[in-house]
UniProtKB/TrEMBL annotation:
InterPro entries: AB_hydrolase_1, AB_hydrolase_fold, Carboxylesterase_BioH. Transmembrane segments: none annotated. Keywords: Hydrolase. The keyword Glycoprotein does not apply. GO terms for molecular function: hydrolase activity. Residues 6-243 form the AB hydrolase-1 domain. This is Lysophospholipase, alpha-beta hydrolase superfamily. Pfam families: Abhydrolase_6. It comes from Jiangella alkaliphila. Coiled coil: none annotated.
Amino acid sequence: MEPDTIVLVHGFWVTPRSWEHWITHYEAKGYTVIAPGYPGFEVEVEALRENPQIIVDVTVPALIEKIEGILRELDRPPIIMGHSAGGAFTQILLDHGFGAAGVAMNSAPTEGVKVVPFSQVKSTFPVLKSPANRHKAVGLTAEQWHYAFTNTFTEEESAALYERYHIPANGGILWGSVLANFQPGPQETWVDYKNDDRAPLLFVSGSEDHIMPPAIQQSNLKHYKSNTVTEIREYEGYAHLLPAQKGWEQIADDVLAWAVEHAR
């Protein structure tokens, strides 16, 4: 029985609004589409900008718990797709036994992935330049957004998307993902790379992504040693904000076809 539901997990510096076109695209194909916000993110982008304390209060266990609660209510396992940090959360959800298939787009690394390309350092520097940011919500300027998210877009397109989607990000979670590889024991972004019981997983990589470049996706893929399907596809010319870049419809159709074909 094919999955009838698609769950879309957003990343940092954005909200579920960033999936708006994918939601209507998949709903038009007859799917039920759920795009959960992190705890407290049930409000609009503008409200989160005005009250960033909501963002500061989010923890990885709480947001995983929230999404797992939604998944438990479904009649059958959905296709789970995540972008950026949502890609890492998708990997965690699959590892926890959820989903019929998973797609991680321009995914943040899970624990143990130590590749750190220069463009990622530059993209995340606004947060990681100061340990004090571990207790703050840290936004990007329009210029920083253009470098990190929309480097293949025109300045006009980038500015419009910045205005529509951008919110500050949780500095504590970003710092935690960096420190995870230096602290003993499993941290918040740990997954069991040898879990043979998890659903099939597809990594999607934009060749021009600055914040989560192809090297990170390749390294993340190589960490998996399970007997479950784990594949990667790279799309030439795509930046980090791949779900909003011209031609996204083809990628949306490609990853859905892959997920349906491999769904368990």
